[in-house]
Design goal:
The protein is mainly β. Strands 2, 3, 4, 5 and 6 form a 5-stranded antiparallel β-sheet that branches. Strands 15, 16, 17, 18 and 19 form a 5-stranded antiparallel β-sheet that branches. The relative contact order is 0.14.
């Protein structure tokens, strides 16, 4: 059921996900797929080098989403991952593995048979965050978890991979963001041919859950801004079951003389600066962004979705009160509306919901 103007409606897909690793909205050339990745406890012991993908193909209301066959895909172990379809039609996945290496980028050649493609071998390459040597990662010793041989400088959190279309690259550039252990953001550009992660700049400011998006033909960086002293080992909502989600203000940054990123204070889209538990943005037009924010009460928060440019709102906000603690949010434009993916933490596990909103 799609949401109505008064905000009522139920999710089109809702699934419990023990062993959650990621959830994304994949935009292919001719269709959209909703995807969830999990380290499935039921198969992990027998198939440690694989991860389960749950896939749905949404339709237009009143047609219900079509569930595709679950597939076990060859993947490295990891804390969290992010997936996107590249300009070449391939499926790219960025995984924060934090084991033998900090991270891994993988690519599957995709065709009409998505399930079959995921079963096949992936090309992978290891990478790490690009933290300038003069900006060392500083983590209080009493807060550091066992790093399994990887020092805090190499750990990465909250990976996000997106296809960003700019004036210089209208076909799109694969840009990934990741959080260092002390809560700052490194950006990489992924070469689709070699999977090399090239340095895309560093934001030397408290910044978590960052994502890159295109506006007016340029790449901009949005993030939540924690207080100084953030520690991803203990404070990240995916990992810290004891502390839980925290309200942090949304900020944004622009390129700084072609190197690095610097914070901007002007309006980018609507309510930038409002404290949220989770957020996401997606292009609606060259000047306008879809935006989604989760704010309010921790265990009964409000989801706000709207479109805007600067301080102007171009699509009336839709709101809904959610039941549960939200830790991740993903949105993508589709048809006359927007797809929304909400990830909840439930006890020691997770629940994922997918919605389609129309105006």
């Amino acid at each position: 059921m799609t949401w109505k103007r008064n905000g009522l409606g139920e999710p089109e897909v809702a699934v419990e996900v023990p062993g959650y690793m990621g959830a994304d909205i994949l935009t292919l050339a001719d269709r959209t797929l909703w995807a969830v990745v999990q380290a499935d406890p039921g198969t992990l012991a027998e198939r440690p080098g694989e991860r389960k993908w749950l896939l749905w193909e949404p339709g237009e209301a009143p047609v219900r989403p079509k569930a595709l066959e679950p597939v076990m895909a060859p993947m490295e172990r990891g804390v969290e991952c992010s997936a996107v379809v590249g300009a070449d039609g391939g499926l790219y996945v960025m995984t924060a593995s934090n084991a033998r290496s900090p991270g891994v980028v993988s690519r599957w050649e995709m065709g009409t048979d998505v399930v079959g493609a995921l079963r096949g071998p992936a090309v992978s390459r290891e990478f790490s965050a690009s933290v300038p040597p003069e900006k060392p990662v500083v983590v209080a010793p009493e807060r550091v978890w066992s790093t399994a041989g990887v020092v805090p400088e190499g750990w990465i959190f909250s990976p996000r991979l997106r296809l960003v279309k700019t004036s210089a690259a209208p076909g799109g550039v694969l840009m990934g963001t990741m959080e260092s252990a002390d809560g700052r953001t490194a950006v990489v550009e992924i070469d689709p041919r070699t999977l090399e992660a090239k340095d895309g700049g560093f934001l030397d400011a408290p910044s978590v859950d960052a994502t890159v998006v295109s506006r007016d033909g340029e790449a901009v960086l949005l993030y939540r801004a924690p207080d100084a002293g953030w520690d991803a080992y203990s404070d990240d909502a995916i990992l810290s079951f004891s502390r839980g989600g925290q309200l942090l203000p949304v900020r944004w940054a622009g390129r700084k003389d072609g190197e690095g990123w610097s914070e901007r204070t002007d309006h980018l889209v609507g309510v930038v600066g409002v404290p949220v538990y989770a957020f996401d943005v997606a292009p609606k037009s060259p000047q306008t962004l879809w935006a989604a924010y989760v704010l309010g009460e921790r265990f009964q928060p409000t989801l706000l979705v709207f479109a805007g440019a600067g301080s102007e709102i171009s699509a009336l906000p839709l709101t809904r009160v959610l039941e549960g603690e939200v830790v991740r949010l993903r949105i993508a434009a589709r048809g006359r509306g927007v797809d929304v993916c909400v990830v909840f933490r439930v006890d020691m596990s997770f629940r994922v919901e997918f919605h389609h909103l129309v105006w």
